[in-house]
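Changelog note: in this version the structure field was regenerated for every chain. One regenerated record is shown below for reference.
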Amino acid sequence: MIEETLMAGLDHPNAAVRLDVVRVLGMVEETRALDRLRVLYPAEPDEAVRRAMAWAGSRLFQAQQAGHTTIDAVCQYFGVDRAVENTPDATEAELLRKLQDQFDRDLLDMKERQNVRRAGTALAAGLGGAVLGGASLGALAMAGAMMSSTSSPSSGLDGRPVSGATRVPATRPSDASIEVWVRRLRESSSPEQRAQAALELAQLNNPRALPHLAAAFLGDTSAHVRETAERCGKMLYWSIFYWEMEQSGALAQEMERRAQRLGKSLPRDVVPAPPTAPAAQAGPPVDPSPLDVGEILRKAQQERDERRRKRL
């Protein structure tokens, strides 16, 4: 999980990496990192990292006291809570299904009776055609068509949801190039362009953008850019967190827990299915390597070193 990877980065031997990790954890208000920061703070040898830890610790403590958790934020932001609250209980869903089946049977019976009536009407029209005339026959046909049209089911009774009470689908994190937008976020003289760059970085959904957004959140001269960077950093972090929850099966478990708190059980078609197992391979399965914080943040450190050399 992304928060576990970041917290592991607090032990990275490179102080610059630890600094970036602390800033990201503070920006996204990952309250589960608070205890780890408390443990590491007294022994942190780098003064800049210690100051960042003090800032992040204070921010996370306030968020914790306010009741903030990443899981709650993710479930609210991506509509998981809305989906759980608005989905009928499994028992209710079964009752609705039975009512729908009964409605379909009644509708079929109604149509069959109408067909019988129309056949009788056609026979009567044929016998009395000389008296009724063509116009009356047309009126009878129109009446039959109107009867047929009024027998169709109304929208909402065909099994489709009548409201938007569904969660937002999770999006796979990307490795899309972020250099252009990082440079604009860092170097553009226009606050509007820097804020737009933060938005673009969030939409790219690349976790490597997190330290750059954290740097803008803490260091940009524009309050608007700082606020945008914070919001985009959280959106990006939550998106990665949400995807990983779905892939690991943790999202299904969390939805079940939230449904139980409401006194309901969710139908199976609402709970996300666990990821499909990969096809059998000749050799033993190889676990994918976790996201390397050092790899994510090393480039940012190289860029800082390069700018420092240019100033000298």
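Spot check on this record: Residues 129-163, 279-291 have pLDDT under 50 and may be disordered. The CA atoms of residues 43 and 50 lie 9 Å apart.
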